[in-house]
Predict the 3D structure of the following.
Amino acid sequence: MSLSADVFAELEPKPVWSEFAQLCSTPRASKNEARISGQIVAWAQEKGLNIAVDRVGNLILRKPASPGREKSPGLVMQAHLDMVCQKNSDSTHDFSSDPIVPVLRDGWLLAEGTTLGADNGIGVALIMAALADKSLVHGPLEALLTVDEEAGMGGARGLAGGLLNASLMLNLDTEAWGEFYLGCAGGLDVDVQRPASTEPLPAGWTVRRVELLGLRGGHSGVDIHEERGNAIKLLVALLNELVAVQPFRLVELRGGTARNALPREAFASIALPDATGLEEWLAGQQIVLREILRGIDDGVTLQAGCSAAVEMLSENEHSIWLASLHAAPHGVRRMSRSVPGVVETSNNLGMVDISPAGSCCNFMVRSLVDRAATALADEIVSLFALSGTVAEKTGQYPGWAPNPDSALLKTCQAVYRRDFGGESKVQVIHAGLECGIIGAKYPELDIVSFGPTIHGAHAPGERVEVASVERCWRLLKAILAEVSNPAS
């Protein structure tokens, strides 16, 4: 096992890992990409690249074609600069200032206790390595490095038409080596807000903090079909059962920290006239939960501790939130009939923050069918309307419709077959990619996506297979050469 900067000295290809090491050293949470963007601009100036920064902060870098390849079709390599910032509750990591500390273990690079940022830092590193490599053979190259992908695809949304000159695009933001992606889900958010309604804590009542911990979490698009536990849904169900055993009132309920990540932890402060037996009851419920989640989330843990408060939610407010969150959908709504084995429509209850100061929660809806995403979001809005709670649909983005006649796909498949001695797979992904938004603005772009093998994206312990990064580098170089080959 190796730690810190030493880990990258052992890895190949060095040009790619050198760039990823710099990304790990620089905080790059969504909407806070200015520092990493500035570093890349300075890097690009040193390399003599043409640089443009658009009105929302996306970087567009250009590199002239290799000699003799000037008339080849232009190609844009695309990835996003930001990363999902998730950490375990016992981690002291500060994503606004601390570098990611990777660990090399059994052929995988990973982060312990935090996300790694391989999504989509490896894609950015591959692009930077390609732009820096003077030995590569290629046609006119553009690099589109977007901002704010993970928090609503703001960079892709803000990208103006007419900025890109290429006719081909390689998106480097998928997570399974040996697969080329040709389509993805679209989606939207449902943001729920409700003002506070509180009462003073009665004399003699005690406050306990109930914690549900130890779930795996994961990417709300990639992992949603695995039926991993949702800490918010599980804790709400638990609290609804507790009401019948031991009357209490909610003080606060918090869970999840990212809209596109499956919630791993949730916490509730509850006020009780009598807390006798609470710990024993939770111990029994932990046994039940571990049986329900056996083989999926074996580490689920329930615990209670002391807390303090001077007010609690009113009885009506308490009832509305527990009932609404219990009834709210989460998980797979429908599997695709046109793409076997792929989720068509799903929803993630990703974040909740209920307190005497005010309350909110977020649902992220995804679907390969835009109308199906809207329909599911409308159901959620209607559910909360029953209690007079404001729920708004926001940030809708289109899916990426597959083009089975893609000439770029045929080239990618041929290169893979020639250089890796086997057949690749063609896939459609339920996770959201920026390809649909970019393709809508540049309808003539022929787009294909690929990437290394990444497990656990959007959750602490995220890891990338080192060998697959080397293969991606070889594949990228070969595709760039092939599409620029006048004989092709």
